[in-house]
Design goal:
- The chain is α+β, with helices and mostly antiparallel strands and 382 residues long.
- The chain has 3 domains: 108 residues, Butyryl-Coa Dehydrogenase, subunit A, domain 1 (Orthogonal Bundle), CATH 1.10.540.10; 100 residues, Butyryl-CoA Dehydrogenase, subunit A, domain 2 (Beta Barrel), CATH 2.40.110.10; 141 residues, Butyryl-CoA Dehydrogenase, subunit A, domain 3 (Up-down Bundle).
- It is 49% helix and 16% strand.
- The chain has 11 helices and 8 strands.
- The strands form 2 sheets. Strands 1-4-5-8 form a 4-stranded mixed beta sheet.
- β2 and β3 form a beta hairpin.
- α4 packs antiparallel against α7 and α7 runs antiparallel to α8.
- The chain is globular, with a radius of gyration of 21 Å.
């Protein structure tokens, strides 16, 4: 059984972005004061839950806050100005909400039960999709009435606050071969254990621990999808279209925070033409990242899922990540040796931004996909 949380169903008198900015100032203070950088941002998640952000994207008629997709992207970007870890961990829940919202609106999918639970119980959804990707991971063994699942799901951001893990496992079907089964499992179910391994270079407070599944029983009725292993599937095109613009909203927010901090620091110094050159380069790279993100958000809002849409999103993901990483590099260079002090906060943003490298599709896979499509070659595997 899931732990029930006190529901907070309301439509804010201020915008969700304005509320995020107010909460963000508290989150930034906590980040500054912490002496345990690897500790999960539990208090921040409690505030997000209490203020209704957990269900902000759920339609009003289902009990949620009715925030739009674009608004949720802006919320994540705003949160990243104050606490990168909170923003990234919350992005992993947010995209798991916005995907069924889109499927309900565009495909009449039977997802109202899940969305109502998010709204009424304020449950946090966890994802293992980025680490599983097309191949999946773990094993599913057929037993009477369902499957026994074993596996270790890595990078489960927000794990300490999570209620429901949206994940998958590989079933070697004797008739059709290796297949990936998708299902949800309560984090507090028998056989589910969080392995607290998250000690990372950046995004240290995301609680992106391993979740170990040991003989977890999933009934046949709990299998939401069965697909061929290692091949593109319509579900993944939906995930690509909707999840990655939200995730990279966080990284662009991190880059904006690094830029703002650097400008504030340098404005207190005497004028210097070389420093102005570095800051100008930083501005160029930030605009590149912002434009790439804007393109991703527009595609997500106006397109239908498919390989070409996925290709557009993933090109945006590569360009946004490249711009973000260049911003924080130039910020460290422009700020000079002062940036090396943890007390300034710039080195934390530099380290947090490095995680932008690791979400799929990484640049090599993305470039291969783009090349396959323009050459009209098979793009089943990446």
């Amino acid at each position: 059984m899931l732990e029930l949380h006190t529901p907070t169903t309301h439509q804010p008198t201020r915008s969700w972005v304005e509320q995020a900015k107010q909460l963000g100032s508290q989150f930034a203070q906590r980040r500054t004061n912490t002496t345990e950088p690897d500790r999960f941002v539990a208090e921040n998640f409690a505030d997000l839950r209490q203020q209704g952000f957990v269900s902000a994207g759920v339609p009003i008629e289902l009990g949620g806050g009715g925030a739009s997709y674009l608004e949720m992207g802006e919320v994540l970007r705003e949160l990243a100005h104050h606490c990168s870890s909170t923003a990234l961990a919350f992005a992993m829940h947010t995209h798991q909400v916005m995907v069924p919202v889109w499927r309900r609106q565009h495909q009449n999918a039977p997802v109202e039960g899940l969305l109502r639970r998010v709204a009424t119980e304020q449950i946090i959804l966890l994802s293992s999709g980025g680490s599983d990707w097309l191949d999946g991971s773990g094993t599913a063994i057929r037993v009477e009435g369902g499957f026994r699942i074993n596996g270790c799901k890595v990078f489960a951001s927000g794990a300490p606050a999570g209620d429901l893990l949206m994940t998958s496992a590989v079933y070697h079907d004797p008739e059709v071969g290796a297949s990936v089964l998708h299902f949800a499992v309560p984090v507090r179910a028998e056989g589910v254990r969080i392995d607290p391994v998250w000690q990372a270079m950046g995004m240290q407070g995301t609680g992106s621990h391993n979740i170990v599944l040991s003989d977890v029983f999933i009934p046949d009725s709990g299998i939401a999808l069965k697909r061929p292993q290692g091949k593109w599937h319509p579900l993944f095109h939906i995930i690509c279209m909707l999840a990655f613009p939200l995730i990279y909203s966080v990284y662009v927010g991190v880059a904006e925070a690094a830029r703002n901090l650097t400008v504030q620091l340098i404005q207190e110094r005497p004028e210097n033409s070389h420093t102005a050159y570095l800051v100008g380069g930083m501005e160029n790279e930030l605009m590149a990242a912002q434009l790439a993100l804007q393109h991703m958000m527009t595609i997500a809002e106006t397109s239908q899922p498919g390989l070409e849409t996925t290709n557009q999103i993933m090109m945006g993901r590569t360009l946004a990540a490249r711009g973000v990483l260049n911003v924080v590099d130039l910020a460290m260079e422009a700020a000079g040796g002062t940036a090396f002090y943890r007390s300034l906060g710039l080195e934390q943003l530099f380290r947090d931004a490095q995680a932008a490298r690791y979400h799929p599709l990484r640049e090599g896979d993305q470039r291969r996909l783009a090349g396959q499509l323009v050459l009209n070659w098979t793009a089943d595997h990446t």
